[in-house]
Amino acid sequence: MNQNVKNLIQKLGEAIHESVSESEHIAGVVKNLREQGFDVLLMLEATIGLNEVEEETEDSPLLLGDGTTEEGPFTNNDLSFLKSLRISLAEEGQEQGLEPRD
User: Fold this and answer.
1) How far apart are CA 64 and CA 66, in angstroms?
2) Could you read off the pLDDT of 90-102 as tens digits, one per residue?
């Protein structure tokens, strides 16, 4: 991962931290907990996942406006995930559904 992306991820983490720190709603709930006699320690964990966007090729399914593809109710991310599990869509003429690859 290049340094620019690392910097952007760090900025995203800082923005999340700032949003939580400045939230009046969170501050109010923490105040209520303290009034009930509790000391509050708030720790959050954020997982940031990145998927590099790839150029569409001619054999890539066409992504439709509703998030599905021309091949069915799957997004390109769905198809990539299925492909990583070595699962492909059934060929035309076969029973509808998913077919495991050999």
Assistant:
1) 6
2) 654 444 455 555 5
Whether 71 and 89 have beta carbons less than 8 Å apart is answered as: yes
Per-residue pLDDT of 30-82, as tens digits, reads: 999 999 999 999 888 888 888 777 665 555 555 555 555 565 677 777 777 88
- Encode burial over 67-94: b for 16+ CB neighbours within 10 A, e otherwise: ebbeeeebebeebeeeeeeeeebeeeee
- DSSP β-bridge partners for residue 72: 69
Enumerate the H helices of the chain as residue ranges: 3-21, 24-35, 76-84
Measured CA to CA, the distance from residue 72 to residue 79 in angstroms comes to 10
DSSP state of 63: B
| Residue 25 DSSP SS3 | helix
Q: Please compute, for residue 49, the number of CA atoms within 13 A of its CA located in the half-sphere on the CB side.
A: 2
**Total-model pTM:** 0.47
